[in-house]
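Sorry to interrupt, but I need a hand with the structure work. I would like you to pick a protein and set down its sequence and fold. Please put the record directly below this note.
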Amino acid sequence: MATRRRPRTIRMRLTLLYTALFLISGLGLVAVVLYVVFSKPILVTFVVHPLPPIGSGPIPALPPAPHPASASPTWHTVRVAAAESVAVLAAMAAVSAGSGWLVAGRVLSPLRTMTAKTRRISEQNLHERLALAGPRDEMTELADTVDGLLARLESAFQAQRRFIANASHELRTPLTMMRTSVDVAVGKPHRSADVDVLAGKLREGLGAADRLLEGLLLLARAQNSGPSEHGAVSLSDLASSALRSRAEAVAEKDLTVTCSLEPVTVSGNPALLASLVDNLVDNAIRHNEPGGWIRIVLGGDGSHAVLTVENGGAVLAQDGVEGLGRPFQRLGAERAGRPGTGLGLSIAAAIASAHRGSLVLTARPEGGMRAEVTL
């Protein structure tokens, strides 16, 4: 069944509303005018002709009286007047539609400005405001409401990031104290074997806590990264360095690594971009199968750089893979039991976003995952 198409913009709806109201009022006005003009009583003028004196001769013939029909408008006159009125009304309707279109555009111009500015605002530039100028009306009230919402969001984001950074710093002190206590206990000459076993487990837990804190600090730093920290960074050098520093882990799993690295330089924070590449390579190694493979491709077109890291492995669900860019998200119990903090890909996504880029995670149909960073 065919559906009736509605106007797609408020400007078009306002224009049609203006035109419809003009036509309705114009038709009412024309009807009233026609009724008043053609329903008035006809005034008959009597002309008195003086008669000659009696006996002066024959009485002259009087002029014929006007026919009654000729004293009132004919149907032809009514039709002509109605046609002319409709033509004038149609012309005025066209003029009103054009002027209504212009007026609607003028009235809605602040709304288009607010829409364009709102689309440019993200978590990286929440400090920007609409700041709509003009008289105090519904438009400026809406803009002020959106500005208030942005201010509250900015405050919430900043509070969250400060909490992560402060909590991570504060937790370093007790962790250091626990590690020192373990070292003192292990250093005693007459310790039991249980102390060594307990110390090993404690050191393993403290190492995991350290890695978690480092990840949280790096995530907070990536989310607060500013343009002042940026410089020229070679992504090809970062990728090569990440592979060299992880050669032992690659050899331990007997992974086959294939690289295609073009000399690409981007503007960004060197330390954060190095962490981005390191996290992608670590993820490809950690969640791979023994005897698997890794493929790293780096290219650019002059305006964008694209780094792709693929790895083999088990077949994954796309819905789960898309959520790995959020903190502490993992796939299934088997993946959750592996070493790691669940922050690597979320850190990579935050760093890419801080550099006006994006991270796209895709499950490969043959198994494994594809991570593509565009900067």
Observations:
- The domain at 227-374 is CATH 3.30.565.10 (Heat Shock Protein 90).
- Residues 57 and 101 are 78 Å apart (CA to CA).
- Strands lie at 231-234, 256-261, 265-268, 293-300, 305-311, 358-363, 369-374.
